[in-house]
Amino acid sequence: MAAGWNKFTGKSPYPELASNSDHSSICYGVKTNRNFRLGWIQGKRDEIMEQSVIEWIEVVLRKFAPSNNEIGEWLRDGIIICEVIDKIFPGSLVRKINYKQSQFSSSENIQNFLESAQKLGIKKDFLFEASDLKDERDLGKVFRTLNLLKEKAS
């Protein structure tokens, strides 16, 4: 069945159908990839908007983004989002970016981004919570915030 799905969808970014060995249970993709695809299945994420934000980040920072299922990990430490805000609005970061690889540093960077975005006029209601990114709970909110920043920069 998965082969038929691939033939039907071509290069679809959506997950493949997968089943167990006796085909008694079918699900969308492998379980390890569930967090990545759950938002789209539930209708909480907008793939087109997210892709445009990712492409915008690549242009602004001149860095290539990883594949879609690794985007959360790429953004999780807060360095990329802080670099984006610093590049498009120089001097607007509340604190310097912390490049150390630790949970404390990532929390500090995410908080730095959120405070800086609020200082730039993005209302607190439209900002994601630190746990949405750090724990990859709701990447849709993260991308909506980044999309607002993108629109503000245009």
In short, what is this structure?
With 154 residues, the protein is mainly alpha-helical. Helices cover 55% and strands 4% of the residues. The protein contains 8 helices and 2 strands.
What do you see in this structure?
This is Calponin-homology (CH) domain-containing protein. Pfam families: CH. It comes from Strongyloides papillosus. The protein is 55% helix and 4% strand. The protein has 8 helices and 2 strands. Strands 1-2 form a two-stranded antiparallel ribbon. Helix 3 crosses helix 8 and helix 5 packs parallel to helix 6. It is globular and about 60 Å long.
Instruction: Give the uncertain stretches in residue-range form.
Output: 4-8
The CATH C-level name of the largest domain is Mainly Alpha
Helix coverage percent? 55-70%
Q: On the 0-100 scale, what is the average pLDDT?
A: 80
From the alpha-carbon coordinates, what is the Rg to the nearest angstrom? 17 Å
- Please give the domain count: 2
Strand content: under 5%
Q: Helices and strands: which structural class?
A: mainly alpha
CATH homology superfamily of the largest domain: Calponin-like domain
InterPro entries: Calponin-like, CH_dom, CH_dom_sf, SM22_calponin
Organism: Strongyloides papillosus (Intestinal threadworm)
Domain Calponin-homology (CH): 47-153
Protein name: Calponin-homology (CH) domain-containing protein
